[in-house]
Design brief:
Chain B: It comes from Xylaria hypoxylon. The complex is a heterodimer. By secondary structure, chain A is mainly α. Chain A has helices at residues 24-54, 58-62, 65-83, 99-109, 112-124, 172-175, 179-186, 192-200, 203-206, 208-211, and strands at residues 130-136, 143-149, 159-165. Classes of the chains: A mainly alpha, B alpha+beta.
């Protein structure tokens, strides 16, 4: 059976729509080059793995797992990231677009500002490349901040709500080594409407963007 | 690692006067003074590695990134010292990741600057002498070593480094990668490191990291690598 081939999802806004928080040049490279490379390498690894599996070469299939995890995670993370960003001028970028989620944030951290401070500390504490996520915990439904190295993704149990890419390629052309300023500015372009939908809808629906681009 | 913090002033002066600076001794002599890490000077100008590594990258990388590791290392050491002195060894233990990250960042960058050189001076070309013999013995040829290192660099998932090391137990040279700022330790002696963090190349090469990995061979200082092997 031939594996599914994944495609780059189009950005839901123009490349320059997140300026001045994130520059057009960063968005172009990040979406057209970096995200595309994860997809290209994911499709390659899936194909090699499927061929090996079909012919009983388990060792060759197993050898692809690291590439599937890394590049698959890269595809998942970036697909979710684009959707949880929004032009600052849009009503979706207002926290009021996420009433239920805001209530949960208030009851968890005390206030949106305290949540932002805790998330920011987590993001700036990442050693090397990685992501920070606000997730809804499996089972308890509680909110939690997690950081994940490299392209590890929130794929087991928890539901990813808001992700922030802390790879240097996500900010370096604009912010250089000043990553704290990137973290400050990204709050202006968070898509709270997407976050609310992820918080309230079924976990499976959060990943629809992947199925929609094959 | 402890010896890095204990270079006597006379030894430091002697090392500074000497024209050949041994890799690890240079760390002890110039960047760890009385237990405090300091940013070592580059032995070439920020623009000296152009066109392979731009002046802007070198300046940010040295003055900002490396300095941040130095600051983080000193802060980690201070916090660990305080925790230890106040009898809170378990707190000291929890600070180990910070020490590894920032200490590793300081060690790695210090070694990296020294194993680079302007192409017009000691940079580029091919290894000679005992280093060449060891490379030929363990990799077959310099070309094979280069391609092994380039493959290793391309395969790093996230931030990290590739190193040519000597395994003291086996007596052989090997190519290894390390994630983030994990330093080379134990039986391995670092001979030559290449920084594969995006900040090492992004302003010039963006997502085309393979171009950076092929360009950097023009500025590898094989004299430094040979002298590290001699002392390994």
């Amino acid at each position: 059976m031939a594996p599914v081939t994944y495609k780059l999802p189009p950005l839901p806004y123009p490349y320059d729509a997140l300026e001045p928080s994130i520059s057009k040049q960063i968005m172009e490279l990040h979406h057209d080059k970096h995200h595309q490379t994860y997809i290209t390498n994911l499709n390659k690894a899936l194909e090699v793995s499927a061929t090996a599996t079909a012919s009983g070469h388990l060792h060759d299939a197993a050898a692809q797992l690291s590439a599937i995890r890394f590049n698959g995670g890269g595809h998942i993370n970036h697909s979710l990231f684009w959707e949880n960003l929004s032009p600052a001028s849009s009503p979706d970028a207002q926290p009021s677009a996420a009433p239920k989620l805001q209530a949960a944030i208030d009851s968890t951290w005390g206030s949106l500002d305290k949540f932002k401070a805790a998330f920011g500390t987590a993001l700036l504490g990442i050693q090397g490349s990685g992501w920070g996520w606000l997730v809804k915990e499996a089972g308890t439904g509680q909110l939690r901040i997690v950081t994940l190295a490299n392209q590890e993704a929130v794929v087991v149990g928890d539901t990813p709500l808001v992700g922030v890419d802390m790879w240097e390629h996500a900010y370096y052309l604009q912010y250089l080594n000043g990553k704290a300023a990137y973290v400050d500015n990204i709050w202006k372009v968070i898509n709270w409407k997407t976050a609310e939908a992820r918080y309230t809808e079924s976990r499976e629906d959060v990943f629809n963007v992947l199925k929609g681009n094959i | 690692m402890a010896t890095l913090f204990r270079a006597a002033p006379s030894a430091r002066a002697a090392l500074r006067a000497s024209s050949v600076k041994p890799a690890i001794a240079a760390l002890a002599s110039t960047s760890f003074v009385r237990g405090k890490a300091t940013l070592p000077d580059l032995s070439y100008d920020y623009g000296a590695l152009e066109p392979y590594i731009s002046a802007k990258i070198m300046e940010l990388h040295h003055k900002n990134h490396h300095q941040t590791y130095v600051n983080g290392l000193n802060s980690a050491l201070e916090q660990i010292g305080e925790a230890n002195e106040s009898g809170n060894q378990s707190k000291a233990a929890t600070l180990a990741p910070l020490l590894n990250f920032h200490g590793g960042g300081h060690i790695n960058h210090t070694l990296f600057w020294e194993n680079l050189a302007p192409a017009s001076k000691d940079g580029g070309g091919e290894p000679s002498g005992a280093l060449k013999s060891a490379i030929d013995r363990d990799f077959g040829s310099f070309k094979t070593l280069q391609s092994q290192i380039n493959t290793a660099l391309a395969g790093i998932q996230g931030s990290g480094w590739a190193w040519l090391i000597k395994d003291k137990a086996a007596g052989t040279l090997q190519v290894v990668t390390r994630a983030n700022q994990d330093p080379i330790a134990g039986n391995y002696v670092p001979l030559m490191g290449i920084d594969a963090w995006e900040h090492a190349y992004y302003l010039q090469y963006q997502n085309r990291k393979a171009e950076y990995f092929s360009a950097i061979w023009n500025v590898i200082n094989w004299k430094t690598v040979a002298s590290r092997l001699e002392k390994a």
